[in-house]
Design a protein that fits this description.
Helix content is about 45%, strand content about 10%. It contains 9 helices and 4 strands, in the order H-H-H-H-E-E-E-H-H-H-E-H-H. Strand 1 and strand 2 form a beta hairpin. The longest helix is centred in the C-terminal third of the chain and has 23 residues. The mean pLDDT is about 95.
């Protein structure tokens, strides 16, 4: 499993890049970048194999899971050309398995996130319908001891007020105000560099599964429980 261990230089490269985020420095250190990138690809490949033992992942390889280190700065105030983190995502396979997994490796800010980043209007409508009708089930799920210990509270952007069509005094207003429905777990640099990190990551992703499967069922059935996949 040596290939599945994140090397210290893969983090150190990011620290140095954060201090020298320009093309001249990057080109001079292209060899370090390529070595670190290969290390992260190897880690992502090994993680993908672990995850496919307990979930169905559509993403074909660790390499395909990775996001580019080159930033799109066209609409950003920050014009530095490179991301100072490694990140990637895995998509669940098939129409019945909704949601996805995301990992971010960054000195002092590494984390895993899973769930629903940007539900479309139809998905958002269906989620809120279910919250309104079945909020005790949501509270039971999100109050599960393992979920709370691993992720804390639900993570994601929220509206400043009640969504259209819902009263501010609704008993589930805190859930209804979410625009994203995600779980997040942070890791220290020491954990990231530890030999068993890949198994810690896989275990955290496993613990997201009840939430992802709960949401998958909601998003693939109508308000009467009839499948939307037929």
């Amino acid at each position: 499993m040596a290939a599945a261990i994140i090397k210290k230089d893969s983090l150190d490269f990011l620290t140095d890049l954060g201090k020298n985020n320009n093309r001249e420095w990057f080109n001079l250190h292209m060899g370090r970048y390529l070595d670190a990138r290969h290390n992260i690809i190897d880690f992502a490949d090994a993680l993908l194999a672990e995850m496919n033992s307990h979930d169905r992942i559509e993403t074909p390889s660790g390499k395909k899971s990775l996001f580019r280190i080159y930033k799109d700065v066209r609409f950003s105030k920050d014009k530095t050309p490179y991301n100072s983190h490694w990140s990637g995502s895995f998509k669940r396979a098939g129409k019945a398995l909704r949601g996805g997994y995301y990992f971010r490796i960054e000195p002092g800010n590494s984390a895993l996130v899973g769930g629903f980043w940007g539900p479309g209007p139809d998905d958002m409508k269906r989620i809120r319908q279910d919250i309104c009708a079945n909020y005790p089930d949501w509270n039971n799920l999100l109050g599960n001891q393992t979920l709370v210990q691993t992720f804390g509270n639900l993570y994601g952007e929220q509206l400043g007020t009640a969504p259209r069509g819902y009263q501010k005094g609704h008993p589930a207003i805190d859930l209804l105000r979410y625009k994203q429905y995600m779980l997040k777990h942070a890791f220290s640099d020491e954990e990231v560099l530890s030999p068993g990190f890949i198994f810690k990551v896989d275990d955290v992703f496993k613990k997201m599964r009840p939430f992802l499967d709960f949401m998958s069922e909601i998003l693939t059935t109508d308000a009467n429980g009839v499948s939307l996949l037929d």
